[in-house]
Design brief:
It is a single chain. By secondary structure, the chain is of the alpha/beta class. The chain has two domains: 5-60; 70-251. The protein has ten helices and 16 strands. It has helices at residues 5-16, 23-30, 34-46, 68-72, 76-87, 102-110, 124-130, 155-161, 187-198, 236-242; strands at 20-22, 51-53, 56-58, 94-98, 117-121, 136-140, 144-146, 151-153, 166-171, 175-176, 181-184, 200-206, 218-222, 228-231, 248-251, 256-259. Residues 4-59 form the HTH deoR-type domain. Pfam families: DeoRC (PF00455), HTH_DeoR (PF08220). Keywords: Repressor, Transcription, Transcription regulation.
Length: 261
């Protein structure tokens, strides 16, 4: 089920507000009736994107990620703009990791016109998408398929990725904490993202603003380990964390910070 423009804006507003909003704040912000907001919140809650509480909503507290199909519809336009910004940075002939998740899938979509790359991935949707570009050589890891996430996982998968040293490691995250911690939902996901961080010349994090303050239980690394962070909106606390760090930030809403140092 796709989200309406207002529902996407509600999710963005919720993240910017620190994860808690009252129904009154929502009706005032969007200038609609209580009944209209209630319908939106019920639909978002049914998809697991928000948690209903008395008088409003909060970000869901989760130990498991949403299904791939549910994640595909969240901030889709933002993910597409992030993907295009990344695709524009990849030179012909580069070697690339593309990790799990829906934003790396959008990066693959943005690469369909690229003149030539070598891509290593465990993301089934990435591999299927890149099959449509004969100029891209795609290497896919073996392992155990996760049907709900549409990817391949396990020790063999991580070992396969660690055999490479690529030019660009492009990966997503489950959540970004207020302290700049890169969070994932399982040890397998964390180990795979860690392999991308360890085996890439340039580490590229792709994450839309819905990931900020999103709860996930496993700590994979820190934001200042990333060379390039591409997002649609940079919250003030994250910008402060990156001050005097080497991380370059591209914000597709129109503000590009360059290196934070």
């Amino acid at each position: 089920m796709s989200l309406s423009e207002r529902q996407n804006r509600i999710l963005a507003f919720l993240n910017q507000a620190g994860g808690n909003l009252t129904s009154t704040e929502l009706t005032d912000a969007f200038d609609v009736s209580v009944q209209t907001i209630r319908k939106d919140l019920n639909e978002l809650s049914n998809q697991g994107l928000v948690q209903r509480v008395h008088g409003g909503i909060t970000l869901p507290r989760q130990n498991r990620n949403l299904s791939f199909s549910n994640r595909q519809v969240i901030n889709l336009d933002a993910k597409r703009s992030i993907a295009q910004a990344v695709a524009d940075r990849l030179p012909e002939g580069a070697s690339v990791f593309l990790g799990i998740g829906t934003t790396p899938q959008q990066v693959a979509q943005a690469l369909l016109g690229h003149p030539g790359l070598q891509v290593v991935t465990n993301n089934l949707n990435v591999a299927l998408t890149l099959c449509r570009n004969p100029n891209i050589e795609t290497l896919i890891a073996g392992g155990r398929i996760r049907p709900s996430d549409q990817d391949v996982m396990g020790e063999d998968t991580t070992r396969f990725l660690r055999r490479f040293q690529v030019n660009f490691g492009i990966f997503g995250i489950g959540g970004l904490s207020e302290n700049g911690e890169l969070m994932d939902f399982s040890l397998e996901e964390s180990h795979l993202s860690r392999a991308i961080l360890d085996c890439s010349d340039q580490r590229v994090l792709v994450a839309d603003s819905s990931k900020y303050l999103r709860s996930a239980p496993i700590r994979t690394g820190l934001l200042d380990e990333v060379d390039l962070f591409v997002t649609d909106h940079l919250p003030d606390p994250v910008e402060a964390l990156l001050r005097d760090k080497h991380t370059e930030v591209i914000c597709t809403s129109g503000h590009e910070t360059g290196e934070s140092a």
